[in-house]
Write the structure tokens for this entry.
Amino acid sequence: MKQESWKNGRGGAMAILLGATVACSGSGPSTGERLTSTVKSAGRGAPVVWARDFERIGPNMTGNPVRPENTGTSVLFAGGSIFNGSARNGTVPEGIEPLSIDIFTSKDFYKDRALWNDKRYYRCNSPLDLEAQWGANGISLIGDNGPATGAWGHCDRDMPREALVSPYPFKTAQEHYQVLLEEARARGGPTQHTYATLPGEWTGRYEFPTKTPGNDHWFWGHKNQIPTILSLLTPEYQQRAVQEHYHHANSNIAHWPAQYCWPEGFMRRWHWPGTREHVVLVTPSLVQISTFNSDNFVTEIHIGRQFSMEGTVPRLGADVPRWYGETIGFWDGDVLVTWTSNIQGWKTHGAFEFSNRMQSIEIYSPNRNSSGGLEGLLHEAILYDTEAFVEPLRIVRNLRRLSGVETGDPRPYVECIQTIFPVGGKATPLSPGATFTYEVPDMYGRPWAQMWERYYERGMEKPVDNTLFDFSR
């Protein structure tokens, strides 16, 4: 058995046991978390390194998703909020030699490519901390002479890259799905449920994932140094990520889809404020998982169906990308395995962009208490994108069951009413009756980047995008 080990943010030893059926966790599992299995698999259930076992990298503020017990060493400042960085107002942390140019002081981040893999270029901030510098989460951290006086995070904190990538050997979602399907067949499956045998107890309401204790994961972007995230991406998508980080930290020109009532995109499902309570409905032929926040998110899992392989990517319907893709799946006993494809490329602000080649394998396993009662679902997702990612990624979280659908508030349906418009390339709140000039962006051509490049990158030396002519991917 191969073992990979390193130090976590508190100085304790961490390890992943590849191929094992048990996991080790520095702070212990949350209630009902499934860490053992009687079924060994080459494609699901590998041990998890949880983000909760690492300290937050940078400044903490009102609206932070991390619970107080997980903030690490913190100092209160005006307003009763928490500053968890290492230096503010233009000062440099002790023992750190700053770069002569960083993302806060640069006039052209494209020219700084050689510095992108140096955490000091971002003042050791995580993606979430960069987007919060100018007060996006309620408290400004930028200092008296922003952007030059942007705050520093902690340079000695990070999650290891091995905790972010897939532990499985598969290069494509299709290969991964096929292996899981063959494993089910070897056990006499896939399981063909009827209404009499269906795990109907899954139907119900599940807690807002961010509120589930110990549930934070790396995609929240609060415990990762940015170079570690960039190492997951191809060169073009590294550039796209740094472009957004620059406009969060330097120009203070953010373009978040929710600001404009634009679609939220597939990856928003895992972002810390992205979705709230989930409702799961289970039938023999269709499982539906719906949730909401700034938009409506509906995953329809078509049990037993097969994708058409004729087209750009595997699909169920027309050869047209869908905002949340199309999903097929099968039951392996009490475990639900799904494959999502035909996804519209987009972004999650503060994280990174993904392409139309994004696909996912997602496994939902029941978390049970000592008496066998269902406490929730362990949701394991492996993300494949041959255009944006250099290798597959993995996110694991818990969905804690609150109740059946017989009680509790029904899930609201979101209708976003736009009051903020990108006028002159800047998000501008407008009142009823306002008259203004508005240029409609190309929604399928990175609309956020169109505005940055037109209004806020004049004079910068953007490299030619040769990927536009690369037909091999």
User: Anything to note?
Assistant: The mean pLDDT is 87. Helices lie at 127-131, 173-186, 226-230, 235-249, 447-456. The first helix runs from residue 127 to 131.
